[in-house]
Design goal:
The structure holds 2 protein chains of 2 kinds. Chain A is of the alpha+beta class. Chain A is built from 7 helices and 10 strands. Chain A has 2 domains: 43 residues; 194 residues, Sulfite Oxidase, Chain A, domain 2 (Alpha-Beta Complex), CATH 3.90.420.10. Chain A is elongated. In chain B, 64% of the residues lie in helices and 8% in strands. The longest helix of chain B is centred in the middle third of the chain and has 29 residues. Classes of the chains: A alpha+beta, B mainly alpha. Chains A and B meet through α2 and α3 of A and β1, α1, α3, α8 and α9 of B.
Chain lengths: 262, 227
């Protein structure tokens, strides 16, 4: 500033300084306004109301909408040709991890257990475990994934859901959008989109490591659905039903994504 | 005499400042998710040096038992993070701004001199344009890391549908580790970045908001002062 050159031509200096001030003012004002707006938007989202409990619950309303929109987007990538990776039996865990036994913690009345399937006609099939074991058995050794973030290679055996549908003539039911499954005591329940249920690796499993499934792991029959997180892999299936609307779902009611697809 | 020297484009400034809060939310919600299976630690010869994370840290940030909430936030802001990143990368490629950003052949050697200069070991820094050699490497690396976070994220998010990504990331387990390690990388980058910005001073900081630097054309241009 104390350069004599500059003193001689102040006219040239002022516009530059003015320009600097003007651009600084505009940009810093914009920056501050947008910054405050962004923070306000964040607070609004963070304190946004929790959805009223219905088929889903516990999530902030806008976040639930986002989960549902993301589901629609990522469903486009779902294909029966996308199979979960399988492993040799030798890699399967001997001590199979177990998180909860909600809905399967009461004493199992094995002798009287029947799988109930609610058909569209109103008829309810009552199927014994022996009838299910008589169907073609499929073994699956895959990496079971829990929503918590752990995974474990496990070996399950049972009837593929598609084979089960085929055998019991449930094709009209598969035209609907969803399958609902519940434990006999209705303490645990899941809803599955039909495409995931009909995936070729979805099993109604009755064996774990070549042995009948132990009670804590869902005896006598449990769902193994590798295209979903563990939360959808219902233990001790009591009832299967079909619907065009989302069946109720234990963890979706507690803030988790309804789809929970992998 | 003072002159205005254009430095950062509006798109660069916009995406930079939009990314900052989004990445913060992603890291925070990521911790809510990680807590549910917090198995990572640094162990060398049987001695654990760092556990991710200690209880006092979780409690301080109110992290425990918020998995569902964390996932809900993470799977919303992932969209903003990705779209903002695509916008920046597309702009940088199309505008030709990548020429000032991507490391050159000489950058690897020069970055060493920049480091020595920054540590006050070496007097002269190599001549530069918009970014010095160390910046070229660091800022390009952070973009690559961002792409890595999206890819490893998708590999964990849909490991069956995007099985090829999961395979590319070395499997489900390893993808999760990379995803986590990249996040540590962002935090490390952030700390260095803040220190450098403070040292570089006001003129440099302003350019990321206003877009320009003020150059005094009477005195010889100082070299390598930008961060």
């Amino acid at each position: 500033m104390n350069n004599p050159e500059e003193d001689k031509k102040p006219k040239a200096e002022v516009p530059v300084q003015k320009q600097i001030n003007r651009r600084n003012f505009i940009s810093f004002t914009t920056f501050t306004v947008l910054g405050v707006a962004a923070y306000g938007g964040w607070r609004k989202l963070y304190t946004s109301p929790i959805e009223t409990l219905g088929i889903t619950g516990e999530a902030h309303k806008p976040l639930r909408r986002a989960l549902n929109k993301s589901e629609l987007f990522f469903r486009n990538f779902f294909s029966n040709n996308h199979l979960v990776k399988t492993y040799p039996k030798s890699m399967a865990a001997k001590v199979v991890r177990k998180n909860t036994s909600i809905g399967a913690d009461s004493r199992l009345d094995a002798a009287n257990w029947r799988l109930k399937v609610k058909k569209l006609s109103g008829e309810v099939l009552s199927i014994s475990i022996d009838e299910i074991k008589a169907l073609t058995k499929t073994d699956l050794v895959f990496d079971f994934k829990c929503v918590e973030g752990w995974d474990q290679i496990q070996h399950w055996g049972g009837v593929r859901f598609v084979d089960f549908i085929e055998h019991f003539g449930l094709h009209p039911e598969t035209k609907l959008d969803y399958v609902g499954m519940e434990t006999p005591d209705k303490g645990y329940y899941v809803g599955l989109d039909m495409a995931s249920a009909m995936h070729p690796q979805t099993l109604l499993a009755y064996e774990m490591n070549d042995q009948p499934i132990p009670v804590p792991h869902g005896a006598p029959l449990r769902l193994i659905i590798p295209v979903k997180y563990g939360i959808k892999n219902l233990k001790r299936i009591g009832t299967i039903s079909f619907s065009n609307r989302r069946p109720h779902d234990y963890w979706a009611e507690q803030g988790y994504d309804y789809y929970s697809g992998l | 005499m003072k002159t205005i020297k254009e430095k950062h484009s509006l798109v660069m400034r916009w995406t930079h400042w939009v990314n900052f809060p989004i990445l913060t939310v992603m890291i925070w919600s990521g911790m809510l998710i990680y807590w549910a299976n917090d198995e990572y630690k640094i162990t060398i010869f049987g001695h654990t040096y760092v556990r991710f994370f200690p209880d006092w840290y979780y409690n301080l940030l109110h992290i425990p038992a918020r998995l569902a909430e964390g996932m809900a936030f993470h799977f919303l802001f992932m969209w903003f993070f990705t779209l903002n990143g695509i916008f920046y990368v597309a702009y940088t490629i199309i505008s030709g701004a990548w020429r000032e950003l991507v490391p050159q052949k000489k950058s690897w050697k020069e970055a060493w001199f920049v480091l020595l200069h920054d540590l006050h070991i070496r007097k002269m820094a190599p001549p530069q344009n918009k970014y010095n050699a160390a910046q070229r490497i660091a800022y390009t690396a952070i973009i690559v890391m961002g792409i890595g976070s999206v890819i490893t994220g998708l590999a964990i998010y849909k490991p069956v549908q995007f099985y090829y990504l999961t395979w590319l990331c070395g499997g489900y387990h390893f993808a999760r580790i990379i995803h986590f390690a990249l996040t540590l990388g962002y935090v490390f980058f952030f700390l260095i970045h803040i220190v450098q910005v403070i040292i570089a001073g006001w003129n440099n900081f302003r350019s990321v908001i206003s877009g320009f630097e003020v150059v005094n054309t009477d005195t010889p241009k100082k070299l390598a002062k930008d961060e």
